[in-house]
């Protein structure tokens, strides 16, 4: 079956990576497997041990990596403690560290095997036409071409702590009745982004009446526009539409991508050509308009006797025999 074929591909080297659920991973026996990455935290210590046990089998050693966001660190520590595991905590490797390791791995690959006569003949032919530096540079390019490009990752712990510090500044002026409102942009571009960048407003054709919520709108916007959540500013959900800010830096490409048909949803997203719509609070919308104090009012009082309220009774004015 497919599972057997996949495991055989890993054993003979045709495949290097296996992505599996907890159920599919049960019973996997790969002695050469030396790295397990937990994409999310296990539900309990048993699952933790089961996942980690896929590596280091048959007396070998391996590495088990947990990807833990700051908000779930406490849960991860509890799982590790219940499992009897002492973990080494660290941040994700940065791009420079990855490049350095790539260079070391390239040396291991190039100089671990013996050189054949054909290899020497080809090397002499290349040296006759090019310098040794040009040949080495071309070899490095060929090696790097098959590797994914490393990226710098922002530490979420530092990011959240800086935001907390910003929110709790002592010199922040409290808003009062005499404090002027922040000026709004007259076009689709707002004054400033949350990170200090100019932004552009967009509108999605979905609102509260169709259960629109920011927790699923945010990943949908990122997927449709090919952007990161850091490029999204304020999100305002009204009854029938949702308006949100996009960093002006990526707004042009975002607008082009959201016009394409989407297989997962048919929510229309368009650029806001004017200022975002301001919607009155629910209390004000539900309240009836008030009359001026000096305006005449008609008061209709309800009588306890419905006949008196609606006219004379049917038998009044008649002579009974």
TrEMBL record:
Biased composition regions of type Basic and acidic residues, renumbered to the chain: 156-184, 281-321
Stretches assigned to the Helicase C-terminal domain: 1-106
SUPFAM superfamilies for the chain: P-loop containing nucleoside triphosphate hydrolases (SSF52540)
Protein keywords: ATP-binding, Helicase, Hydrolase, Nucleotide-binding
InterPro entries to which the protein is assigned, alphabetical: DbpA/CsdA_RNA-bd_dom, DEAD_box_RNA_helicase, Helicase_C-like, Nucleotide-bd_a/b_plait_sf, P-loop_NTPase
Pfam families (UniProt xref): DbpA (PF03880), Helicase_C (PF00271)
One MF annotation (Gene Ontology) recorded for this entry: ATP binding
GO cellular component entries: cytosol
Region: Disordered, residue numbers: 150-196, 272-321
Keyword Protein biosynthesis: no
Family matches, as PANTHER family: ATP-DEPENDENT RNA HELICASE DBPA, ATP-DEPENDENT RNA HELICASE RHLE-RELATED
The protein, known as: Helicase C-terminal domain-containing protein
Organism of provenance: marine sediment metagenome
